[in-house]
Amino acid sequence: MGQITRRGLTAVAAGALAAAAVPGQAVARPAGADPAAGAAPPAPRHHRKQFRGMWLATVANRDWPSRPGLPADRQREELLRYLDTAVERRLNAVIFQVRPTADALWPSPYEPWAEYLTGTQGRDPGWDPLGTAVTEAHARGLELHAWFNPYRVANHTDPARLVPNHPARLRPHWVVPYGGKLYYNPGLPEVRRFVQDAMLDAVRRYDIDAVHWDDYFYPYPVAGQTFDDDEAYARHGGAFPDRASWRRDNTDRLVLETARRIKGLKKRVRFGISPFAVWRNRATDPLGSDTRAGVQTYDDLYADTRRWVREGWIDYIVPQVYWNIGFAAADYARLVPWWAETVRGTGVRLYVGEALYKAGDPAQPAAWQDPAELSRHLTLDRDHPEVRGNVFFSAKEVVQDRIGAMARVVADHYPTRVRPPH
Fold first, then answer.
1. Are 125 and 115 in contact (CB under 8 A)?
2. Which of 6, 114, 248, 253 has its CA 20 to 30 A from that of 69?
3. HSE-CB for 389 with a 13 A CA cutoff
4. Could you tell me which of 393, 395, 312 has the C-alpha nearest to residue 347?
5. Which residues contact 324 (CB under 8 A, 6 or more apart)?
6. Residue 233 contacts by C-beta under 8 Å, 6 or more apart in sequence?
7. What is the DSSP letter of 417?
8. What architecture is domain 19-97+131-147+199-229+256-413?
9. Domain boundaries, the chain
10. pLDDT tens per residue across span 320-378
11. What are the pLDDT digits (tens) for 100-134?
């Protein structure tokens, strides 16, 4: 199937991916229409509280700001418009990307201001986007989850393009070029400590509701390239049977250490991760899902996502189930039950990541040309009480809603606003 993800610079950078509706507008349906076709299903039998979120991406100005270099008041206006749209769509959480590339959308003592604000890395934008987002989200009854990328340094491989005082320039031995990007080396304990310190500065200083990570740990495989961590493995990997086990342990340590440090700072702040949805295929591991994905997080990203849930290291998980019902290699209708079984009895909340960006994209399969496809996903989710909500990628599509798929979800499943589960 190849790599299937949605994070990063563009569909090309991700490796395998490729008319605006009025917010809250209902979509007309014939009386007595079959719920399987997207009509409003009966009232839910469980969970009066639901997590209804959207990702607000800042890397490469994917969602916000619309372009770098806008005046501060225009940036703020655009940000508030997204928060207002979330309310109009009857959502209750915004997952705001505040550390896209080893930088910051707040005045961090550890890392420079993100270039996506002013067009120049390190330049003060004249306001505090994260602080504003927290205050304004809470004023609207929205949770604000701060989304960080632990290891990505730059979407290029030229350290000279980073500001002179960037930690990656001051400590070049921390950095590995790979796949056209720069990454911090997850195998170095000092790197793991630093990225935690940088992220937890935001937890300490702001009233955020959660720390959120996406699917980037070790980078996605690039054909013909090797992630050069030989020296780190020689220094730190001696206790492990192979490099893959050592790499997984590095990622496990990052997750567990961060979880403990978050709770040590503020017990009420949650910790959630949004991984690529396939842990392992069943053909690889009998505990895996009934899928035939070309990427498996356990083997390719060195991220044992199932373990993090089973061990209760995180508070919630949002697998990116970015495929339609019936998609042969990774069927939404098969992956959601697998994740429901995985979280059962753990206390970890399960929210499902939804590929709103695919709806109406002519490059996507026929199912994604049907405005009811996403609504069918939420109908299917109701058969699994472990599913406590959904998150939509991403904010730009929540606003534009090119074929009315988001409006259909709202009409069918979000009759009123509700509180998120805690």
1. no
2. 6
3. 24
4. 312
5. 332, 365, 367, 368, 373
6. 187, 243, 246
7. -
8. Alpha-Beta Barrel (3.20)
9. 19-97+131-147+199-229+256-413
10. 999 999 999 999 999 999 999 999 999 999 999 999 999 999 999 999 999 999 999 99
11. 999 999 999 999 999 999 999 999 999 999 999 99
